[in-house]
Amino acid sequence: MVTQRIDHKWGMVVDLDRCTGCQACVVACQAENNIPINTKSFYQQRRAYHWIRIERYWEGEFPNVKAKFIPIMCQHCENAPCEPVCPVFATYHNDEGMNVQVYNRCIGTRYCSVNCPYTVRMFNFWDPKWPKSLRNQLNPDVTIRTRGIMEKCSFCVQRLRRGEVNVERRGIEPLTGERIPAADRKLNYRQMKEGNYLPACVQACPTNALQFADQNDNTGPVKEYFDEANEQIETRHQGGHVDEAHTRVYRLFEEIGTKPNVIYLKKVEPFPLDKA
Amino acid sequence: MMPSRKMLPLMVAGGVVTVIMGFIVVVLFISWFSNPPFGLGNAPAQPIAFPHTVHVAENNIQCEFCHRNVTKGAAATVPAVETCLFCHKDIDGGTVTAQSEIEKIRTAFETDTPINWERVHRLPDHVRFIHEAHIRYFTDETIPVKYGINGEEIIQSLDVAQTCTICHGDVGNKTVVQPKTGQSLKMGTCVDCHRNNSVPTDCTVCHK
Lengths: 276, 208
Description:
Number of strands of chain A: 10
Strand order of the largest sheet of chain B: 1-2
Distance between the termini of chain A: 62 Å
Radius of gyration of chain A: 20 Å
Helix content of chain B: 40-55%
CATH topology of the largest domain in chain A: Alpha-Beta Plaits
Number of helices of chain A: 7
Radius of gyration of chain B: 24 Å
Strand content of chain B: under 5%
Helix content of chain A: 10-25%
Largest sheet of chain B: 2 strands, antiparallel
Oligomer: heterodimer
Strand content of chain A: 5-15%
Number of helices of chain B: 8
Structural class of chain A: alpha+beta
CATH architecture of the largest domain in chain A: 2-Layer Sandwich
Order of helices and strands of chain B: HHHHHHEEHH
Number of domains of chain A: 2
Largest sheet of chain A: 4 strands, mixed
Number of strands of chain B: 2
């Protein structure tokens, strides 16, 4: 039957060894998701916001210094701390592994922002404004959030939905436009890439440090890492020991049990600072 | 009996409160009753008096002939001026008013000015409705039974025009299209129909 739901479980892998801190993802996200322009006064009031940000850490003493970059976006936790505190259920977990913010339900209590350990939830203190020259640049698929509601990274859900409609429901092959037979209509990684259905930050990343796919998609780049991460969780749960030196996979604040759907890969240090 | 001087400010305050409360009640009253089934929703004034009756009911033009994008994309779209000229290059109206209205289209075509149609059915900004997906579902022959908004069974597959009437009402028999004459286009309508047909009711299906 056509109406049968084809379920996905989305996941992102951030390879810190590849991230150069170029901020292309930040710009792409800002353009894709109708995020207003942060002015000087926004920063002075500590109210500037991005859905994805690059955190920069310096290591070592001058002149032996190294910069480390970590892109941080909403981790789409399985046990999200933001969800139980919302009094109006404006944020909830859907069956695709995404933490969803419903703008029209939100009343702006900001409890979720306080409870988020990653501080990725952003509050609209003002109505968004754009210069007149940028009005036609706005993305028509994304709601413009008004003053007084919370917003955050959505894994570019508008792109994923467009992909699901075009490939799984209509059965249109992204590049060629051919009809896909009804049995094969499952959005895979190649189709997401060709049809621009990947999140904007992933598409913009020049070094492929950000990877996004279905966690169960064998052809996608993220399945092996999520398998490894799930194995680690299972080992820890049974009281076993995970050899941290021989794995690159980790999740942010894993120890507080949020179970994020974003995995980070440790930076490989061939020349550590003390030996340089 | 005259009220004492001490009572006067109290009475003024009472009067002000009454006026404010009355204003709120009137606003709520109008906003509630301007929706169907009470039908106080007014049709916006259009630049050209376009009668759907003549085009659809009398001359059997299909919806998707003018609203071209309705089977292809999210928005149904109003037709370009060229689409009107497709017929009205040759066809004149039967009455004097009709002729003058048709003349407006020809002038617009010759002077390259778009016609600023007023939008009738408007959804809030946070709702993304895809016309194409809904028409594809109701015209699909492989789905044996589909359900309407009130749970009624639809056995045979519909054509495009019948699908439109589910939400928009019988537009083909109306000279002036009024908003929300078919369905109230509130979220409850959408969710009812989605539940009846057991299609996804996840928030991100419509709200993005």
